[in-house]
Design goal:
Elements (H helix, E strand, L loop, with lengths): L2 E10 L3 H17 L4 E6 L11 H4 L6 E10 L2 H13 L4 H5 L9 E6 L11
Antiparallel strand pairs: 1-3, 1-4, 2-3
């Protein structure tokens, strides 16, 4: 079964287009280095919960939008190899130094996939 890196972050609405441009470039780099899938989603129905929620998790402010993204790999071994190549890729150097969001509030982690059902065309 595959391996997935998941990400949750808050991006200032004023910098959303800048973030999208960075994400498109990152997608190209990850896919060229061997990722199987790459997805970036903007929060559309993410209510601020009483106790927990996506916005609470990243301490989203009123002028920010929640981003949920993931990258799929064949295995954890592939992910580790691909990530090393991506981090060394000069195309992302400037983006990593000047991210259009507060990286300290980003939540991320790697997950071993045990179930993956798809119908029709992928995202």
């Amino acid at each position: 079964m595959s391996y997935v890196d998941g990400f949750l972050l808050a991006v200032p609405k004023a910098q959303l287009e800048e973030y999208k441009a960075m994400a498109r470039k990152a997608c190209d780099v990850w896919m060229e280095h061997g990722a199987l899938a790459y997805a970036e989603c903007t929060g559309e129905d993410v209510p601020y919960g009483e106790l927990t929620s996506f916005p609470r998790a990243v301490q989203a402010k009123e002028d920010e939008i929640v981003i949920f993204s993931w990258i799929v790999y064949k295995s954890r071994k592939d992910r580790d190899e691909i990530l090393e190549k991506v981090m060394a890729d000069p195309r992302l150097k400037g983006d990593m130094e000047n991210m259009p969001f507060d990286g300290k509030r980003m939540i991320f982690g790697g997950f071993d996939c045990f179930l993956n059902a798809q119908k029709g065309q992928a995202l």
